[in-house]
Amino acid sequence: MNQDINFLIPSVPQSPKWWRNIVMYQIYPRSFKDSNGDGIGDLQGIIDSLDYLNGSSNSLGIGAIWLSPVYPSPMFDHGYDVSDYRNIDPSFGTLTIFNRLIEAAHQHSIRVIMDLVANHTSDQHPWFIKSRASRNNSLRDWYVWRDPAPDGGPPNNWLSYFGGSAWTLDKTTNQYYLHKFAPQQPDLNNWNPKVNQALVDIMHFWLKRGVDGFRMDVVDRLLFDPTFKDAPCNLAYKKNVDPQVKKFDFSKTYYQPEVHQIIAVFRRVLDLYDAVGIGEVEARSIDFIQRFYDHGRGVQLPFDFLLLKTPWEAKKIGAHLKMYEKKLPRSSWPMYVLGNHDKERLADRIGKHNLKLAALMLLTLHGTPMMYYGDEIGLASMPLSKDKWQDAYTKNTKSDWTRDYSRGPMQWNSSKYVGFSTHVPWLPPNEFKNEQNVQEQEKGPNSILHLYKSLIKLRNNHRSLSEGTFELIYDGSEGVIGYLRSFRTEKMLILLNFTSTIKQLRLKHKGLLGTVIMRTHTHNNPQDLVCTIHLKPKEGCILKLEKN
Ligand code: NOJ
Fold first, then answer.
1. Which of 30, 81, 82, 181 has most ligand 1 atoms within 8 Å of its beta carbon, as the pocket-test mutant?
2. What is the value of pTM for the model shown?
3. pLDDT by residue (tens digit) across 378-393?
4. Position 164 in a domain
5. How far are the Cα atoms of 270, 381, 488, 495, 522 from residue 365, in angstroms, in the given order?
6. Which residue has a Cα nearest atom 2 of ligand 1?
7. Has residue 254 been placed in a domain?
8. What is the Å distance from ligand 1's center to 28 Cα?
9. Catalytic residue from among 217, 294, 325, 404
10. Of 389, 424, 453, which residue constitutes the final position of a domain?
């Protein structure tokens, strides 16, 4: 196949800032749906599941899917080690199937967002194979090579986020190469404009095929300190208590301000196609995250991972929302998220009894929500003994937690392999598969899945919820978070009771009365106008406010 053909694939009609008023959904492709019975999810499986996501009255109502990497890869880090940026890994399908996925997704009004891994490649990528072959080849400077220290050890004390030194000696040329992650993931030298250009070409390659944007892997960390000075010691490091990875600070391999110039180049490419950039940015501080909007030159949607890290307590969540929204640069748009493939499953983190409240909050907050597959059925992690761990990051460490726990197969029904596959899945289903599956939850009007569907429908049909302004009314200090979403005259009040007691609230907001239009704990029959509301423990509700 000629890979340079500019495919004429139908696209979803263009609308300015389309990424603002939809609900997005992260798919971990290995785990979503296996169509060919090898126990690994694939692109055809996603095509077969599109009706579930959008396009019919019974669908979830998702407007965009983000696919974790599907490029050819040795799969050391399950795709975050790319060996060819212009193809599809055979375990997921082919470029032809990918084209079909774009076409079918667009017909379902679903946009498709790929993962751009720009910090590193696989050590099997032809660029690295060439780069490592000699000291003076044309791709040597595409990666980061340094001579050993005088004692033969690594050139400096930089550590990898995956543990150990960030340097590995390559005997062919007797130099060390840099890897912020695993040795199998050598860092690209993003100070080299030729590398930036190669990444831009890759973006064009996919955008021309109809892709609607990229989630950008570790986009805040694409550079390193070019002076190669040692990292300072972490003064808070506790010897024999903290893992070695905490010994030095990461200032030399984390953020370098020049990274914004690279992101601005990526952004210009995105703008040519009306595409979106979603940034994976470290949850360092609100100011740090919001810097990545860069006055419209950065990514449109840097993730707010601070919310994801905030303990599930009304006071703390309320305080975070208050501050995040207050500091949000003018005309910028938040992206809130409660789980992903690197973090604990939402159900494990906050407990089953809080899941409906979390759904109601995520889908009524300001900004674009990114859901994680399976959260809509309350998917919890599976028991998995350490000898069965597959995650490169955790299996060789002393960690008692693995990212595998959050990457289990999507549970479509209660059969042996949960409707995910006809073969033993690469990770096992969980022990709650009889309740935590799509088929079962489609039956019950009180299921989490049902709530997600109703909430997304409500959000998609009400501009106050999808595009409206945000005003915090109750900041969580009394155990309840409340906020107002408004668009023109339409006003929705959201109330979330985080406590284990009943809360009675008087609605006295600027002379308005409310009609309850949705509750997490009771059926959604619209009620008469109310001026007082009782919220059950852990209950959330949405009221439409009208003039008295
Ligand atoms: C961030 C990704 O989310 C994670 O899964 C991966 O291991 C690292 N980047 C390295 O690519």
1. 181
2. 0.95
3. 999 998 999 999 998 8
4. no
5. 26, 26, 17, 11, 21
6. 217
7. no
8. 12
9. 217
10. 453
